[in-house]
Amino acid sequence: MIRLQNLTLQRGPQRLLEGAELTLHAGQKAGLIGANGAGKSSLFALLRGHLGPDAGDCQMPPDWRIAHMRQEVDTLDRLAVDYVLDGDLELRRIQAALQAAEAAHDGTAQARLHSEFDSVDGYSAEARARKLLAGLGFDNAQMDRRVGDFSGGWRMRLNLAQALMCPSDLLLLDEPTNHLDLDAILWLEGWLRSYPGTLLLISHDRDFLDAVVDHIAHLEQRKLTLYRGGYSAFERTRAERLAQQQQAFEKQQAQRAHMEDFIRRFKAKATKARQAQSRIKALERLEELAPAHVDSPFDFSFREADKVSSPLLDLSEGALGYEGRAVLEKVKLQLVPGARIGLLGPNGAGKSTLIKTLSGDLAPVAGALSRGENLVVGYFAQHQLDALDPAASPLLHVQRIAPGEREQTLRDFLGGFDFRGERCDEAVRNFSGGEKARLALALIAWGKPNLLLLDEPTNHLDLEMRLALTMALQDFEGAVLVVSHDRHLLKSTTDQFFLVAEGRVQPFDGDLEDYARWLLDHRARQSSTTSAVAESEGEKTDKRAQRQAAASLRQLLAPHKRKADKLEKELGTVQQALAEVEERLGEAGLYEAARKDELKTLLNQQAGLKGQESELEEAWLVALEELEDLQRHLEEAN
Questions:
Q1: Measured between alpha carbons, how far is 265 from 273 in angstroms, rounded to an integer?
Q2: Are 376 and 401 in contact (CB under 8 A)?
Q3: pTM for this model (two decimals)
Q4: Which of the four CATH numbers 1.10.530.10, 3.30.70.2210, 3.40.50.300, 2.60.120.10 does domain 2-235 have?
Q5: Percent over 90 (pLDDT), the chain
Q6: Buried b vs exposed e over 500-533: b needs ≥16 C-beta within 10 Å?
Q7: Segments making up each domain of the chain, as ranges
Q8: Cross-referenced PROSITE patterns, in alphabetical order (predicted)?
Q9: Please, are residues 180 and 204 in contact by the beta-carbon 8 Å criterion?
Q10: DSSP state for residue 287 in the 8-state scheme
């Protein structure tokens, strides 16, 4: 288990944990939540041994294997599938040792290492790595591309696959869904639910937490509180606790006011002086209960558009794509004020292509796209975070689009996005991804849009900001078209789904649970088609590889068979000698006093021969087992 006792953790002058307590038992799956900067990632560093506690204890089994999702990629020339396989360090160690043994023509070492290779499921390792990559959205061609060919988001997927590939007793995942689409998240949920080890997960996706974890560890005010259940259960339990705390606070305040009133009225009266002094001491002993401050730091809305057209956008018989090549065909879509549409579809099906076309970033390959006279688009996509001026502050960004507005009005507006005080004047280059996303949303909100096109708007946003965005979208009077892996956002802000798949955009008659089932069927169909093609194209190559593997294993069989035969022969000789000694020990006259020395010699011989028999028998069985393993692999190769 993991046990934190009276733990204090500090980074520089900032104290992150103080007197914290936490116990996680083996096999439990816990979500770690808390405000940005509260210390979640530092707690992960502590568990990985990269930080030491400033006070208290952090206890873990010393033999636990720990896997974690890296946040950087430092190997760009590796093929994607090899990069994922690198996550299994023991597998790579055995492969390197086996290569050295083959170069040295050491048959004995090769046989031992082949046995170790089998024990870590090495023969199925590449197939497992490719299965992980497929689940995370990579196609077969991408699996054999260089890591350096992928964008930052896809490299994070590779890091996630590498962490999942590593055999582990404790798995630490920091925001694993940030760069995933909905179908990859649904796959990851299933994988993590079947993970047998202990899981500690940092995530701002409430539906993902509900689906995966059985506990929530809440980091707040430098303390850790463990709640049973997923995020929804945590929310209910914490709300009840805060309500009780507020009631206790209000009751205590009434009690305090009554005491202070008594002291004020009777302190000067001789007949009541003693009682007043008693009240003063009781007041000093009264425990200070803080009121429940649960207000979100975010409070904003999308400013109401000055004018509205209907329809806002009308696309008919659209062919959408890049450089004259259509990704989507015969697209028909009309957006009117009040429309609430969520786009669903597998990765790469064309959801972002559709949004880019509607925003004007892409021209249709064919078809007619008409825009309303008063259309004002608020378009959010991840690449817009990079388009922010790194040298400008949030205030300057807004002043550029509202040059005639009072500065205090702009500061008040930015405060709703939690840009306050000095943070409002700080250069964007120092901001995190979440802060840049908040600023991009602020710029959209100020522009009074009547159509919001949102492509993964919750990436990098914490739970409080996601909730604020959800509430703002619910109050928005214009039209919304959104692509998001945040199911809570989709369920709370949309009333219609469109499915983007197989080159078409069509209404989807169902909810997110129905989409999850559709996705499973879609993957099964794709897998069946891919397997049939791969079997047809790769049959000759596979047979050649099998023959080569079989030839290699045949070379290993001969020395092992000789070793086993030799041990069996030696064992037979010892057993025969032991039988002769035990036959002599069966003679009745041997136990007479005159033959005492002979009896002692025979007993010593018996003991020695039994020891040799035991050692030879164990060595012979090991040799037989290695021989049988190699024989089995030979049969499989054939």
A1: 10
A2: no
A3: 0.69
A4: 3.40.50.300
A5: 35
A6: bbebbbeebeeebeebbebbeebbeeeeeeeeee
A7: 2-235, 243-285, 313-519, 545-637
A8: ABC_TRANSPORTER_1, ABC_TRANSPORTER_2
A9: no
A10: P
